[in-house]
Amino acid sequence: MDITFHWSDYLMFAFWLLVYSAIGLYHRFRTPIRKKLNQCFHRNPQEQVKQDDTETIFLGNRQLSLVPIVSSVMASFLSAVSLMGTTMEAYVYGIEFVCMILAYCIAFPLAAEIYMPVFYKLRLTSAHEYLEFRFGKSVRWIASLIFCLQMWFYISLALYAPSLAISQVSGLPLWISLLTTGAVATFYTTLGGIRAVVWTDVLQLIVLTFGLLLIVIMGIVKVGGPQVVWDIALEGKRLQSFSFSPDPLRRHSVWILAFGGAGMVLSIYGGNQTQIQRYLSCKDMKTARRAILLNIPMNAIFLVIQLAAGLVAYAYFIDCDPIGAKLVKKADQLLPYLVMVLFDGIPVIRGLFLSIIFAAALSTVSSGVNSLATVILEDIFRPLFYFISGKDVKPKSQTLLATLFCEFFPQFHLP
């Protein structure tokens, strides 16, 4: 394919990376800025601005409000892999995946009413601390090590897969996308801690939603209207693929997606350190509960938009399937290819799409890096240090180690 990125596309991509970095810088210097403002406006001298410590880095002083938390809970596992995969699912197989909304309706209330209150009432930093209370130290250590390995592979895949797909479709060098995305995510996570992570998640979710809607709208316009998209999808049997078969060996069915999907969603939102850390960062349990429950409509709406993008792609390529014609090497390159074709001659918009893909990757990487640093310090390093020396790590040393872990461990995620 001859379509490549214009210099303005790279400029748009660089602009959003700078915005994310600026959020990290702001939260890094948020404390001294507030101190200076207190002095300038002669506020109550007894009013103290808390110094950065591990609770600030990992939990935002447990004072985060609903808006950043609800967005971050959603964005943390909204990876670029799932973004491209869900679109491809609708293109190739149809919209049966929409039944995942049933899974959301089962899993999120369970996470909000059963799992989250247990962790919140214990005032934990790491979810694995609960395992020590219940089963002993060895179980906590084993679970922590498994989590670190799982998250290491997950972050690597979340970073590498979209970079490779865009590189093969657009000609963007693979090393550029890997290096810039990994470096920016590490930069703002290290500087700003959990506050920077959740506020960049807010912005990234806005960029993702706006960008996908733009793709859907442009595709509908070029195809000839929503009725044309609907008729083509109906004729191609992309709207009648629902199965109520109880056979557990089927690829998908309503029951598999509803109950199997609920188990998968609950494992993430009910017990994963990345999500538990966000609940523990809330200013009260009511905020945490609302953040979880609001993810039902938010995830449902976003899933519908992704599937709509897949149907638009099916209608647009009805006369020339890019997968069958070998215009793309793999099916998961369909969304990047669709954008390159739809917005050919509108370079800045293609750059916005590049930002969309990497916004999804950045949200996953930054959330994973912060949770990894939390687990390594709280579940592995501190218990090991106490076992060897009989003393806990000093608070200032904990803060330094938290920063170093955020900065150091992401270097091993680059494939």
What does this structure look like?
This is Sodium-coupled monocarboxylate transporter 1. Belongs to the sodium:solute symporter (SSF) (TC 2.A.21) family. One of its GO terms (cellular component) is plasma membrane. It comes from Clonorchis sinensis. By secondary structure, the protein is mainly alpha-helical. It has a single domain (7-13, 58-410), classed as Up-down Bundle (Sodium/glucose cotransporter). The protein is built from 16 helices and no strands. α4 crosses α13, α7 runs antiparallel to α8 and α9 (174-223) crosses α13.
Q: Mean pLDDT, nearest integer?
A: 84
Give a short account of the largest sheet. Answer: none
> Into how many domains do the coordinates divide?
1
N-to-C SSE series?
HHHHHHHHHHHHHHHH
Number of helices: 16
> Quick one: CATH superfamily?
Sodium/glucose cotransporter
Query: What is the subunit arrangement here?
Result: single chain
- State which percent range the strand residues make up: under 5%
Low-confidence stretches: none
Give the tally of β-strands.
0
Summarize the amount of helix as a percent range: over 70%
CATH class: Mainly Alpha
CATH architecture: Up-down Bundle
Protein name: Sodium-coupled monocarboxylate transporter 1
InterPro entries: Na/Glc_symporter_sf, Na/solute_symporter, Sodium:Solute_Symporter_SSF
Family: Belongs to the sodium:solute symporter (SSF) (TC 2.A.21) family.
Keywords: Cell membrane, Ion transport, Membrane, Sodium, Sodium transport, Transmembrane, Transmembrane helix, Transport
